[in-house]
């Protein structure tokens, strides 16, 4: 089987998983964010590390808009069309053509909440939601429709699915608040339900890059064939098996992005991978809890991936 088949095997409950896939994600230097050089850098990274699918980094970030200074200003939010996304979609098309026959090609999809944060700044967005959520929701609707244009273009370009990153429900933000249910979740689900219907392989990423969580319950009904999140839950440290059981689907992760994978020796890397595998569920993909800093030595990632590939051989 090629890598495409081996990754999809994780979803097939009728067959025993005989191979553990692995993938780690990072942002490349800005000179590799656009055009053919972005395609080449993704392929170079994929080939060098030996990871099992191509995950396309999203670099077409929503621009900051100074005119949105108060909640009511969200009514001015523009609708971005294909001219805004064209470069990112062409990168996806190029990677599908180059690697799509041997492996899955997955596009990163930032949530509407995250794109709203890029638009005004994360702290400002939180203040605006708490002061007057209704006009902010109108802006979120516009952002969601913008992202829908991007999603549909990527699907037409041949991507196999999306790595959908969600924020907003962290402890220091809207965890436990009805505002999460009103201003974040409906827009997440609008996009995620669409990609879940049309794509073969989607990853739900509960992102803790800004802050952590003490409760993952609000995300249990989010679609996604695989869940990726941190194993830290408040004061608890979950096992990969616990996360898989909680979400009722395969888990991807286990490796702390700021731990030994970033600064450790080859022996350290092999050790952390083996520790993760000892507590891994039957259906599992090795990865990090979020994007690994770009300063990581690619050799460490290659060693981690080789270690997991050899685990059951």
Explain how this protein is built.
By secondary structure, the protein is α/β, with parallel strands linked by helices. It has one domain: TIM Barrel. Helices cover 45% and strands 12% of the residues. The protein has helices at residues 3-8, 35-49, 82-99, 112-120, 122-131, 133-157, 178-183, 185-198, 240-247, 260-263, 266-278, 298-309, and strands at 54-56, 105-110, 161-166, 203-206, 226-229, 232-233, 236-237, 251-255, 284-288. The protein has a seven-stranded parallel beta sheet. It has a two-stranded antiparallel ribbon with strand order 6-7. Helix 3 (82-99) runs parallel beside helix 6 (133-157) and helix 4 (112-120) packs across helix 5 (122-131). The protein is globular. The two termini are 15 Å apart. The mean pLDDT is 96.
Low-confidence stretches: none
What percent strand? 5-15%
Major sheet: size, sense and barrel closure?
7 strands, parallel
**Rg result:** 19 Å
H/E series: HHEHEHHHEHHEEEEHEHHEH
CATH architecture: Alpha-Beta Barrel
The strand order across the widest sheet is 1-2-3-4-5-8-9
The quaternary state of the protein chains shown equals: single chain
> Which CATH top level class fits?
Alpha Beta
How many helical stretches? 12
Query: How is the CATH topology named?
Result: TIM Barrel
